[in-house]
Amino acid sequence: MIYWLIFINGGAMRTNEFGELTAFVAVAEEKSFRKAAARLNLTASTLSHALRALEDRLGVRLLNRTTRTVSPTQAGLALLAEIVPAFSTIANAVESVNAFRESPRGRVRINMPRIAADMVFLPQLPAFFGQYPDVQLELTTNDGFVDIIGEGFDAGVRIRDDIQQDMSAVRLTEDFHVAVYGSPGYFEQHAIPQTPADLPHHACIGLREISGGSLYRWEFEKDGRRLAVPVSGPLTVDNIGMMTRIAVDGIGLVYTAHSREHDELVANGRLIRVLADWSISYPGFFLYYPGHRQLPAALRAVIDVFRLPSKGTDTL
To answer: Comparing 37 with 138, which gets the higher pLDDT?
Structure first.
C-alpha cells in the first residue's frame, strides 16, 4: 500500500518537504541545477532555495556545489538510496491512475538524431497533438550516443544496432536504403556517374561524423562487393537533414537515406537518383526505453502514433 503521508524525523512530512525531496532527487540525478530545473519545469533559483531549505531542516549538507559541478555528499548519497525507490513506487502508482483517463497526460522526454526528428517526428506532430492534447513532448536532438537513463530521458531513438540489449524497442521506420542524388541543373554540367569510381570527379557534399570528426566515406555494395569511397567537394556539413535541400539547389551530389520525399522530388523532376544499383541498406530507427519499467500512458501514446504500422514491440 502506498502512503502519501511520509514520516521523517518523527513527524508527518508537509507538502513543501515532499517538493524539496523531489528537487533534491532531480538535482542529484542530473548533477545540474539547470537540467533539473528543465526536468521539473521550475527555475534554477527555485530549486536552489528548496535545497537550502531541505539542508537547513535536516542539519546536513546534501550536495557539493562548485561553479561547474553538483554532486551528492555522502549524506546525500545515503538519502538518495533510501528515497529513490519510494519515489519510483509513488510514480508507478500515479501512472496506474493515469491509465483510467480518457486521454493520457504528462511529459515525455525523447533523445534522437536530427534526421529521426526530421523524418519521423516532425511530419506526425500535428496528428499526435490532435489525438493527445494533454501530452507534452520534449524532443532533444543529438547525433552522438546518449545514456538515456543517466540523462533523464524517457526514451531514445537510434538504429537497432546501436541500442543496448536490455532495452525494449519499437520499430519506427523500415530499414534504410542509401541513395545518391543530384539536381538536373548539376547534371547539365557533369556526366552522370556510372560507378562509385566516378565520384572523385564530382562535387560531393561531405558529411562529418559526430564521433571523431572524420569525413564519412560513402559506402556502396553490389554483387557482394562492398566499397567505402572518400569524396570531396565544395561543402561539408554535420547534419544529414540538410542534404536534400543542398541537392535540390544544385550545389553537388549528396549521399543520404532514401525516402518518400526523395521519390516525390524525383517524380517532379527536381532530383535525379544515380548509382541505384550500388545502394546499401542499414537498420531502421527504433524507439527504445528501459524494459524493466512500467510503461507510462504518455509514452504509450507516443508509441501508438509514431510506430511503424503492423510492427510490434521487440525486446533486444
So the answer is: 138
Residue appearing with cell numbers 497526460: 105
Residues 6+ apart with CB under 8 A from 311: 170, 171
pLDDT digits (tens, 9 = 90+) for 288-311: 998 766 788 899 999 999 998 865
Contact 301, 105 (CB under 8 A): no
Q: Backbone phi, then psi, for 63, in 5-degree steps?
A: -130, 140
DSSP for 116-159?
Answer: HIIIIIGGGHHHHHHH-TTEEEEEEE-SS---TTTTT-SEEEEE
Instruction: Give the chain's domains with CATH numbers.
Output: 7-98 (1.10.10.10), 106-175+284-315 (3.40.190.10), 176-282 (3.40.190.290)
Q: What is the largest CA-CA distance in the chain?
A: 83
Assigned C-alpha cell, 160: 537497432
3-state helix, strand, coil in the chain (%, to 5): 40, 25, 35
Residues 125-174 have pLDDT tens digits of 999 999 999 999 999 988 777 888 778 889 999 988 888 877 899 999 98
Q: Is the pLDDT of residue 76 over 60?
A: yes
